[in-house]
Amino acid sequence: MNRGAEDKRQQIMAAAVGVFAERGFYQAKIADIAAAAGVGKGTVYEYFRSKKDLFQQLLLQLLKDHLDHLQEITREPTLADFLQRFFRENLAYFQENREIARILLSDYPPIDAATHRLLLAANEELRRRLEIYLKGAAERGEMRPVPPELAAAFITGFILSLGHRLAFYGKETLNVEAVAAEAAAVVLKGIGR
């Protein structure tokens, strides 16, 4: 794909995020996405076979971007800084894209088996990268010797639970900074006295 075609594809995908986030998968129309992207409806079909194909490719791109971003977050020098940023940025994403989060976190997202396998693989890669960072934090003496895979599962489960709450039950806007700081403190200090 040449540079101009890739730019057009990205333009359509960027518009699709907004349309899916605003209307949800089932209410979004290709015509709406085309209008938001400033292209004709036929142009969307030059790049994507269907609305479902566009949505699936969008999810895979968002996950790839998320994994790339996680790599940047893992450069945080301390576990406390890492956790606070990890929670803050994930919660901000869930809050800004509630409808996409709702679709992703639902029991039946509109994806095929191959895309589901890719999403699971991306989730495993996220957990693997988190484990590597946590292993380093343990070696630096920033956390007690907890198995990194257990700590990673706890942190990812915690953020997914918070995201689920935001996507399905939250109508209000969270103070993401405050919630991220509190979530990081819970991970770092536990809930005991």
TrEMBL record:
This is Fatty acid metabolism regulator protein. InterPro entries: Homeodomain-like_sf, HTH-type_TetR-like_transc_reg, HTH_TetR, Tet_transcr_reg_TetR-rel_C_sf. Residues 29-48 bind DNA. Gene3D superfamilies: Homeodomain-like, Tetracycline Repressor, domain 2. Pfam families: TetR_N. The keyword Ribonucleoprotein does not apply. The keyword Cell cycle does not apply. Keywords: DNA-binding, Transcription, Transcription regulation. It comes from Neomoorella humiferrea. GO terms for molecular function: DNA-binding transcription factor activity; transcription cis-regulatory region binding. PROSITE patterns: HTH_TETR_2 (PS50977). GO terms for biological process: negative regulation of DNA-templated transcription. Residues 6-66 form the HTH tetR-type domain. The lineage of its organism: Bacteria, Bacillati, Bacillota, Clostridia, Neomoorellales.
